[in-house]
Amino acid sequence: MRELQGAIIVGSIFQSILGFTGLMSLFLRLINPVVVAPTVAAIGLAFFSYGFPQAGSCVEISIPQILLVLIFALYLRGISVFGHHLFRIYAVPLSVMIIWAYAFFLTAGGAYNYKGCSPDIPSSNILSDACIKHAYTMKHCRTDVSNAWRTAAWVRIPYPLQWGIPIFHLRTSLIMIIVSLVASVDSVGTYHTASLLVNSKPPTPRIVSRGIGMEGFCSILAGLWGSGTGSSTLTENVHTISITKVASRRAVQLGAVFMIVFSFVGKVGAILASIPQALAASILCFMWALIVAIGLSNLQYTQSASFRNIMIVGASLFLGLSIPAYFQQYHPETSLILPSYFVPFAAASNGPVHTGSKQLDFAINALMSMNMVVTLLVAFILDNTVPGSRQERGVYIWSRAEDLASDPSLQADYSLPRKVCRCFCCARRLGA
């Protein structure tokens, strides 16, 4: 965790510099829908080996969950309840609550009780062969497999450096820098699509840079607090805006306040920890599929029938899946079943690249084991070297600074909140 913290902080500083110095504005000229579409799609496809293999460990929970969310989202999406399309808007939370309750009754009813076997004993400590066979099922299906509810405090205040002083290594820092670049490319497509969904003009390159810089700043805070993940644009929110027709800042701010408040209540995390792993994996099958679809939808801004674009997207997606599969063959032999998101780091220590520097070898092997990194690299090189007209490539058209000054509606959409503006103005005056 301490090394992960250090890597997140370094990658986030790079992203902040990319945004706040304006370098992202220059980089935007090279990022087009033909680059964004396969890169975002690869983020979802990267987890295909984790989705149903985990969900399939408890099919009596996962299959009803997948079917229910698809029925709500597709077949019942037009049904109105009290004037609201509840099934379309709340397809995921409704289906999760129903199947979660169903899993609770299965657990309480003894469906996963095996004679002489306890779900509280770690699988590595189980001695009985019969219990070893059932340990995997109990871990993925039961709602009480986590003892978080019994051990979690009601009030817990998160604080910085809770895992200790971050450790900074070149190998993991290089990985996180490239990953932050992938996240920035993902955000560019999301910014552009979201602006069109709310019937606004696209942001200016300066505003995009500001957004990327703020993502980096928030990720620095995440690294200091030891969350284990950075802060990035959630691509699925494009779908959320589309189906709810809500894109208000107030809604986002209110949601953020709730999340901050809940972070102080330990029992909230304990409740979430009781979600069976098979149920969580089945929901992620839907969410990652949505990411793939939203990523590919960026091709609507291009001439999708163009052989140039078809070849670039196809080659980048295929190589983005195939090259990492080659590198992942080198992960060390182990009896443990590693989740797909750990495989690149397992392969990094034993990969085919040998430059003479262990730190550099680790970074290159790990990066080439990541689907989204390879996809971005291939798509970026091909799209910016293969000849094609602006219309064919579907170059993103961003607003100009003059538009922001002359259009009051555009300024209202992208200006900072008043209190934040006052803080920045005071800082500038003090600096002057």
TrEMBL record:
Keyword terms: Membrane, Transmembrane, Transmembrane helix
Membrane found in the keyword field: yes
GO molecular function: transmembrane transporter activity
Top-level taxon of the source organism: Eukaryota
Protein name, per record: Nucleobase-ascorbate transporter 11
UniProt GO cellular component terms: plasma membrane
Xref: InterPro entries: NCS2 (IPR006043)
Annotated family: Belongs to the nucleobase:cation symporter-2 (NCS2) (TC 2.A.40) family.
TM regions (residue ranges): 7-28, 34-53, 65-83, 89-114, 251-272, 278-297, 309-327, 362-382
The species this protein was found in: Citrus sinensis (Sweet orange)
Record membrane topology: Multi-pass membrane protein
Locations listed in the record: Membrane
